[in-house]
Structure formats: structure tokens, C-alpha cells
Amino acid sequence: MGAVIQGFAVENQQYAGGAWDWLNWFSILTGFSLLPAYALLGSTWLLIKTEGELYQKMSHYSLHLLVWLGYAMTAIQLITPFLTDAIRERWLTLPNFFYMGFVPMLGLMLYTWVYYVICFSDWERWPFAITLALLGTAYFTLITSLWPNIIPPHITTHEAAAPELSIRFALWGGVIIVPIILGYTYWSYHVFRGKVRDTEGYH
């Protein structure tokens, strides 16, 4: 992700960089930032599925992970506008500054909300849902920083698109397959809904 934000060296529609161009301090920072993010998703999911001592442990872990995620998201948010001229212009010029600043403010509100819910509420399902929304704001920030480029800094989504025939074929495949995947996923979660208790399972 860090390498994508910084952009790739492209010449004549081909990658012109080296094998290790992706390895730098910012890509390492973003990589480590994903660790508390996905761990927090796991721990808040277990708040829905567990009870008793394990539930208390997950609540404790969730708070610590949330703190580390807050540090990571803040660092990336502050650093990203200064990585490239295009991102800096999009974020720090007027009136873009006011429009783009709405997303970090929404993220801060969600961050405060999930902290409150974990600490002071027994709404077991809300921490996971709010965490999803919080991470959604981070990815939305990434998209708005790079759009319309899909291969930064110069190749747009239109330029990188496959031939129209291939796109049509993929579209019809998605129309058929995606509903099946969504239906199966819903059924799987429906079957295994509720808490996992010590007295349940195979013996």
C-alpha cells in the first residue's frame, strides 16, 4: 500500500523500477499499520462470538489494538500529503482542504465512538461494525488521494482498463458469480450465528 501511494516508475506503459523499489520506510510503516487494523477486526469479531473470561480478554486486547491503530492512522494521515506533489495539491490547497478534511474528521468520530462502545457499553456487535467503518474511511482516503490514477502517478483507470470485450465478459461473470458468493457467505454466517459456548461442539 505504501508503494502504491508513492507511485511506480513507468516508461512506455511498462514498469521501469527495480525489484526492491517497494521497500522503504513508508511502505514498512503502512505494512505494520495493517497489523493492529486486522487484529482489531479479529478481536472485535470475537466480542460477538465469545463470553466470560475470553470476552474480557478480547475487550482488553481491543482497547490496546485501537490505541496502536490510532497512532498508525494519525502518522500515515500526516505524512501522506507530503509524499507527492499531486497528493499535496489535492489535500492542502483551497477549497480542497475543507472537502478532503471531512473524511479524517469522520474517522476521528468513528474512532472515538468505538473506544466508547468498548469501554462503556455492552453493545457487542457495534465495535466490529464501527471498526469496519473506521477502516473504510482510511481506504476511502487512499482512493480520493489517488483518483483517477490506478497506477500512480500517471496511469488512470481508463488507460489501464482491459479491452471492452474482456470487461463485458468479466461483468457477466460477476453478475452470475457474485450473488452466489454473497448468498453462500450469508448462509454460512447464519448457520454459525450466536455465541460459542463451552458446552457446545463436537465430542
Automatic annotation (TrEMBL):
Compartment(s) of residence: Cell membrane
The keyword Cell membrane is annotated on this UniProt entry: yes
Keyword Acetylation: no
InterPro entries attached to this UniProt entry: Cyt-d_oxidase_su2
Keyword set, alphabetical order: Cell membrane, Membrane, Transmembrane, Transmembrane helix
The organism of origin for this protein: Marinomonas fungiae
Protein name: Cytochrome oxidase subunit II
Family classification: Belongs to the cytochrome ubiquinol oxidase subunit 2 family.
Transmembrane segments: 25-48, 60-84, 96-116, 128-147, 167-187
GO molecular function list: electron transfer activity; oxidoreductase activity, acting on diphenols and related substances as donors, oxygen as acceptor
Pfam families, A to Z: Cyt_bd_oxida_II (PF02322)
Main subcellular localisation: membrane
PANTHER family per the UniProt record, alphabetical: CYTOCHROME BD2 SUBUNIT II
A GO CC term assigned to this protein in UniProt: cytochrome complex
GO terms of biological process kind: aerobic electron transport chain
Membrane topology: Multi-pass membrane protein
